[in-house]
Amino acid sequence: MGADAIHSAEDARRLARRRLPWMVFDYIDGAAGGEGAPARNRAALDAMVLRPRILRDVSARSLAMPLFGGTAGRPFGIAPMGMCNLAAPGADLMLARLAARENVPLGVSTVASTPMEEMIAAAEGNAWFQLYFSGDGSGTFKLVERAKAAGYETLVLTVDVPEVGRRPRELRHGFKMPFRIGPRQFVDFALHPRWSLGTLIKGRPQMANFAREGFDFDRTESRARATWETLARLRAAWPGKLVVKGVLDVEDALVLQAAGVDAVQVSSHGGRQLEGAPAPFDVLAEMRRALGPSFPVFYDSGLRSGEDVMKVLMQGCDFGFFGRSLLFAIAAGGEVGLHRLWDVLSEELSIALAQCGVADVAQLRQGGDDRL
Fold this sequence. Notes:
The chain has helices at residues 9-19, 22-29, 36-47, 91-102, 116-122, 138-150, 168-173, 183-190, 193-202, 228-237, 250-258, 280-291, 306-314, 324-355, and strands at residues 65-67, 70-72, 76-78, 106-108, 127-132, 154-158, 241-247, 263-266, 297-300, 319-322. By secondary structure, it is α/β, with parallel strands linked by helices. Helix 4 (91-102) packs parallel to helix 5 (116-122), helix 11 (250-258) packs across helix 12 and helix 13 (306-314) packs across helix 14 (324-355). The longest helix has 32 residues, at 324-355. The radius of gyration is 20 Å and the shape is globular. The model has no long low-confidence stretch (mean pLDDT 93). The active site is at residue 269.
């Protein structure tokens, strides 16, 4: 049972839970504190109902979406995720190839398991580099210059991790990055031989973007020294599009808009940082009203279906990003599983459009529910 058993994002998660070591599954799946934040966001998404409409010609439907002067094949892309190769050897490049096939942006994490140069090549240019500020920033700006040289045109600054959130499920397993194996992890891996043998053959995942930089990335290092002056310096250094990810406050979003960023990404880091954070879905409509109709607003956190994508677009989002679910699909069925889930998400969205009388998904961002 693998890719053929994936009929929803929840199917992918269920299968991945069986196949991944507990430590790896809980690293991907876990959230901050008692994990109330993702549950609250899920409830907010579920509470919104769609409006079915009848007798409209929706026989030909388009899922393409304008994005930064071009056109993406879907109104959703791939969120930046660290250490993706924990899901399966080569997961990073599976995601990159998917981005190339579907003409959607791939978020390449600072802590990716594959060097940023390989990722943008495999994605055929459909890649955005996600940046963490860390320590005094010297290493951060080295990565900025390297991303520029590699051909990245969009930089995504993640700002919601001044300190790494406490995620009890990770802590109970002794999860570390870089990856370390102790007695507890050895037993865990021994009970999941399919994953362990594949990882043993390919080698344990590394934080590949630091191999040649002359410094190590400490995941737990404070990022609290980043300020608005840091943002101004980054804006001056980066000639391409600059997206700021992890925005949940409208006042902050307005300051970012005035500071010259090209888009904000509403996100709670999947609930992994602050258990008491507001549901990102609940912030979207107010964010859109404050920033005006034309300023790009992106979204990630908690998307699990094509209907979820439709809902965030109707609330004012211009483009959404899937994260964990794609890693679970890879863990469940490899690259075939990833493609299977992507097709499921696309079909879910297409069917929802038909049910609501919409032929072109781009229409959703032009007026929301009033137009349905």
